[in-house]
Amino acid sequence: MNPLLGALALAMSLAAVPQAASADPQPASSYRDRLPEDEVIYFVLPDRFENGDPKNDTGGLKGDRLVTGFDPTAKGFYHGGDLKGLLKRIDYIRALGATAIWVGPIFKNKPVQGPKGNESAGYHGYWITDFTQVDPHFGTNADFKALVDAAHARGMKVYMDIIANHTADVIKYRECEADKPCAYRSRADYPYTRKGGVNGPAINPGFLGDGVATPENYAKLTDPSWAYTPYLPKGEEKAKVPAWLNDPIYYHSRGDSTFSTEDSQLGDFSGLDDLMTENPRVIAGMIDIFGKWIDDFGIDGYRIDTAQHVDPAFWQAFVPAMLARAKAKGIPNFHIFGEVFTGDLDVARLAAHTRVDKLPAVLDFAFERAVADVVARGAPTSELFHMFFGDPAYANGEATARTLPTFLGNHDMGRFSMFVKAGFPQASNDEVLKRVILGHAMLLTLRGVPTIYYGDEQGFVSKGNDQLAREDMFGSKVAAYNDTKLLGTAKTTATPSFGTDNPIFKTIAELARIRTSHHALTRGRQVPRAWGDKPGLFAVSRFDPDTGKEVLVAFNTSTAPLSANVLVDDASTAFTALHGACETKAAAPGSLKVSLAPLDFIICEAQ
Ligand SMILES: [Ca+2]
Ligand SMILES: [Ca+2]
Predict the structure, then answer these.
(1) Burial of 13 (0-12, 13-18, 19+ CB in 10 A)
(2) DSSP 8-state assignment for residue 33
(3) DSSP reduced 3-state for 157
(4) What's phi and psi for 525, nearest 5 deg?
(5) Looking at residue 179, what is its pLDDT?
(6) What are the tens digits of pLDDT across the range 5-34?
């Protein structure tokens, strides 16, 4: 008998308990048994969350902000948040109903990068120099261990944010001015076996091309000056850990990516040193690095940054190695999800990365786009139907679709509240708040793994994307954050934002509790029930995989009240409301009448 069934039975008995009694998602002991789709994820950038130790604010460095990276008044520098702060506020995250924390990258970064006069800091964590160590601005490896252990003691999971595509920008090219754009040089114009172009002198004799992924072949690649002449600036020769990362031979060194042709995989992402992920030595090195974090910390999953900029063969080797490592550590449901930033409705492109790269899951950018279009931009509800219609395209079809982390906005694109305000500039505060709550209702009831971007629950409204969408949860000193009016509250980001009274917080907490106590909403098959060619009704049914019991969720995306007969299973004759007002009896076999206020939603469970 599958040990999972015990946990299932327990969770099902929890589901029968009235909502308020099941505030804890699952008993702590069973967290390893939970499937990826059972989680509610909270995504946090540690620098912007809570400062638990002012002593580490400068990362142990001495000097001004261009040395330490620390300037809490500037949106592009470290603000002081750290892992001790995250630990201090872990019960806040739990109170929201999140069961897993996606911690932004915590590895040691190059503190400051960028052209003179336009520098910024590695507060976001995506400029790694040392893949084995927590950045001193965030604390120590022991602090991370304490955080992971505290999460596990509460039955919560921790997902790390990792990068294999690039390191910090350390390597420079003789032919390009440092920190200035450097044009991409293609493999056709600059083959690996010629120095400086097709007519240049022969180098790397015997190298059979990057498609022959054997150690013997790559042993013949010894001179990295095929396109440019890479070098390590003085004082940075040993900047990276492990040491093999300091050798330019392990990088493409072809100039900047334009994210279009082959440069999307082989170019430098905004100057960041692009690893030669085709090389078996690089594959083995990355498996070593990230396997060790699993071994040492027992974490529960990896979110993979810039996944689409790495060649598929790398992921085909890396993913099974990580899953095997986790399994050996007693982590059977290790989740891996890649970032394939599309910003559009291109399900085929997302799905291709689950089939070709064999990534177990990808962040669901198509879901984000569809919900934003329908709730924040007035698109017809059929857009949601069309997006979900693509679910069978994923490897393993709808089962994989249920494990895709879904989200409404993020640290790169900006917050959902900003999309609502941009889409409905004349809307009242009340309407904006209702739309933001409606978006979260979709996030927390539809298929996928709801991923809440920290601060959304406090009514944060980013004024833009990227740096402007990375506000502080602790009292901020950034004027461009503090002058923005938040939703659902009179406060601003100038004071700490850890209250539990914001209506968005309350809705998320309520819906997370309903979701995690009903397998229909986490693991259940989703069947679209109603959609249309204008704003209005969108409804789906979801089915408990064990009992077959139906849960109908219906949303009104219009500003007029509506009522309609919605198709349900013939067997679903009586309903109770999990949220809102539901008819207690089907009008006739297979038909339930729903009535919805403007921008409202209901969740009705068949008995
Ligand atoms: Ca600190
Ligand atoms: Ca790459």
Answers:
(1) exposed
(2) G
(3) strand
(4) -60, 145
(5) 83
(6) 333 333 333 333 333 334 444 455 699 999
Taking CA atoms, 438 is separated from 144, 512, 542, in Å, by 35, 14, 18
**Amino acid at the residue 128:** I
Residue 41 has pLDDT above 70, yes or no: yes
The answer to whether 152 and 145 have CB atoms below 8 angstroms apart is no
Q: Which ligand has the shortest distance to the CA of 315?
A: 2
Active site residue ranges: 305, 339
pLDDT of residue 12: 36
69 is written with which tokens?
A: 């990276």
- Model-level pTM? 0.95
Q: Residue 72 to residues 57, 84, 568, 587: CA-CA distances in angstroms?
A: 9, 18, 54, 59
Task: Identify which of 131, 121, 165 has the alpha carbon closest to the alpha carbon of residue 239.
Answer: 131
Ligand closest to the CA atom of residue 79: 1
Mean pLDDT of 254-266: 96
| CA–CA gap between residue 274 and residue 300 (Å, rounded) | 27
Spatial contact of 291 and 346, defined as CB atoms under 8 Å apart: no
Mean pLDDT over residues 344-355, rounded? 96
Q: Would you say 465 and 410 are in contact if contact means Cβ atoms under 8 Å apart?
A: no
Arithmetic mean of pLDDT over the chain:
95
Listed in sequence order, the DSSP H helices in 197-274 are 215-219, 263-266
Share of the chain above pLDDT 90, in %: 94
DSSP 268-281: BBTTB-BB-TTSHH
274 CA → ligand 2 middle, Å? 5
* Residue 405 amino acid letter: P
Which band of pLDDT confidence, cut at 50, 70 and 90, is reported for residue 212? very high
CA angle 370, 372, 378 (to 5 degrees): 95
Q: What is the DSSP letter of 105?
A: P
Ligand 2 midpoint to CA 402 (Å)? 28
Going by the DSSP 8-state scheme, the letter that residue 37 receives in this structure is G
Query: 81 alpha carbon to ligand 1 midpoint, in Å?
Result: 5
Mean pLDDT of 80-92: 98
